[in-house]
Amino acid sequence: MSSGSTGPSEPTGPTITLVLGDITEQHVDAIVNAANSSLLGGGGVDGAIHRRGGTAILDDCRRLRASLPQALSSVRAGETPIGKGLPTGRAVATTAGELHADHVIHTVGPVHSSSEDRSELLASCYRESLRVAGELGARSVAFPAVSTGIYGWPLDDGARIAVETVRETGAGTSVEEVRFVLFDETAYRAFEAALAAQG
Ligand code: ADP
After folding, report:
1. 53-75: per-residue pLDDT in tens?
2. Any idea what DSSP says for residue 93?
3. What share of the chain is helix, strand, coil (3-state, %, to 5)?
4. Which residue, of 139, 150, 153, 166, is most buried by count of CB atoms within 10 Å of its CB?
5. How far apart are CA 122 and CA 153, in angstroms?
6. Which residue CA neighbors atom 1 of ligand 1 most closely?
7. What whole-number distance in Å separates Cα of residue 135 and Cα of residue 155?
């Protein structure tokens, strides 16, 4: 079940496409995973990606965990200390195993908080994933609605941040298509509205 809708793209940025469906069925260069900082798998989209992609992804995640100081070019002030997993807002790539993609890019979304504005961390997930995708030479990238499931981010706001951040990236990426893969109609409509609102 999938239906597409292509929004107007910035002349120099990636085309944004919306798909209603399952991200593990997408044929793209890179699939983004809404992971947790352990990188060892979890529920939601993370569980689905590991199930469909097979054990090669987890094997790669384990290797990556062991080499996180090298895998990340720098550690920023206030981030989770290296050794405790991937900091929120950062992204790293592994094999895509048996998925129809070359890479899985794992990013750790922030848990939503009503007392603290963590929008910048959510924006960072999209920015960092696109940066990693660019480094890999990926031209098409599929994103789920990061943080909008178990991590509790309101869909409308999560969609706004996702679309805004990809738009702001503009010519700063070699990625040509960003495909948001939305698991249900509510999520699809939220992204549709965010695209329409941002022209
Ligand atoms: P988080 O912990 O970042 O909130 P979740 O996996 O719980 O991550 O949810 C993120 C979003 O991914 C939610 O909108 C959820 O409905 C959606 N989702 C869950 N499974 C899939 C899937 N197979 N394909 C695409 N999106 C999915």
Report:
1. 999 999 999 998 887 765 665 55
2. E
3. 40, 20, 45
4. 166
5. 9
6. 147
7. 29
- Is residue 46 part of the annotated active site? The answer reads yes
Global pTM?
0.91
Q: CA 107, 37, 154, 33 torsion: positive or negative?
A: positive
- Ranges assigned E (strand) in 72-170: 91-95, 103-108, 140-143
Ligand 1 center to 142 CA (angstroms): 12
For the chain, the C-alpha Rg in angstroms (whole number) is: 15
Nearest ligand 1 atom to alpha carbon 23: 24
CA distance 195 to 57: 32
Q: Which atom of ligand 1 is nearest to the CA of 34?
A: 3
pLDDT digits (tens, 9 = 90+) for 154-179: 999 999 999 999 999 988 888 999 99
**DSSP one-letter code for 71:** H
The stretches of 11-117 forming alpha helices (DSSP H) are 44-53, 55-66, 68-71
Separation of alpha carbons 4 and 179, rounded Å: 10
Cβ contacts of residue 147 below 8 Å, gap of 6+? 34, 109, 110, 111, 112, 122, 125, 153, 158
Beta carbons within 8 Å of 184's beta carbon, 6+ residues apart: 20
